[in-house]
Amino acid sequence: MYKILSSSGLGVGGKQNELIELALTHGFDGVEVDMADLVGRHDTLGKQFACQFLQSAKIDMGTFKLPVAIGGTDEEFGDSIGKLDTILDLAETLNARCCYIEVAPENEHYAFQECFEKYTTRIQAIAEKFASSSIKIGLLLRASNAKPVDGNFKFIQTADEMLPLIKAVGQPNVGLCLDAWEWAVGGGTVEQLTNAGIATNVTEVKLADVTPGADAAEIKRSDRTALPASEADSFSLELCKAVLASGADLPFSVSTDLSTYANAPRGTVVDSISKQLDLLMTGQDPYQLAQDAAAEASEGEATEGEEASADSEGKTAEGKTAEGKTAEEKTDEAEPAVEAATAAAK
Description:
The chain is of the alpha/beta class and 346 residues long. It has helices at residues 16-25, 35-45, 47-57, 74-80, 84-93, 112-130, 159-169, 180-185, 190-196, 198-201, 235-246, 266-280, 286-345; strands spanning 2-5, 30-33, 60-64, 98-103, 106-107, 136-141, 153-154, 174-179, 202-207, 251-254.
């Protein structure tokens, strides 16, 4: 398994040096890079400058969002892929494993069927461009954004609608960028993924769980547990076990939101994420482990209390015994005097 530190939600943005330092400190294999920012660095000061931080730190670009106007007009899409050669060159230089394209749940230009065809042909064109590299392209469902927008056409909003798009693209280097939180919000199941073939159809996994009691009709990005599998019956845990069973060697990250960690130090957050990923990537249940640890600690405190109580009772008994012996000794000492007094009286 391959552990990626996602910049999303950590408040580091384009500050590569901060992200890299966090990743190295807490044992990550790669980082999620802001590709639009990286291309800007490349265009302003050259490729060497753009790549220097990652290369000098000897850490990979694990994944990145592909900055293309996939649902825009033909002109907008054409303009956005003008930098595709530069993007691919930077990604290969920095050992990227994968990238992803966000699939919006609505479109302002095209009705569903026409939009579906636009996405299909455009993704196929990008896939052909990436065919010579080992970089996988994942399509990311945005079910949480599925809210009515006046004048816009509905597009893909559920897991059931996403899988046919991947199948229609039909390219071996294109699959699903699986955000567990978005997948669950969109009604997706682990069974769907298993049936579709995790090893062949998933490009990377972003873990997060829906907070218990969240309003499904008004879901927000902040409706995430602080860490995946920190609650019972975790979808993220179920998903990780299915990935392990499939034999797929996939990149993993935690899909964070800034509001989730607003009051916690960044280093503490990243350390917790790293440790949680280590457990999940080996199929362990962090929630159950935490419960067991709490129970063991409680038992230990109870045992210590019992021992302390027993020790206290023992000391009290010893004290009483000591007092008893002293009384007897005093009685023995007093007996001769009593006998003498009695004889004198006679």
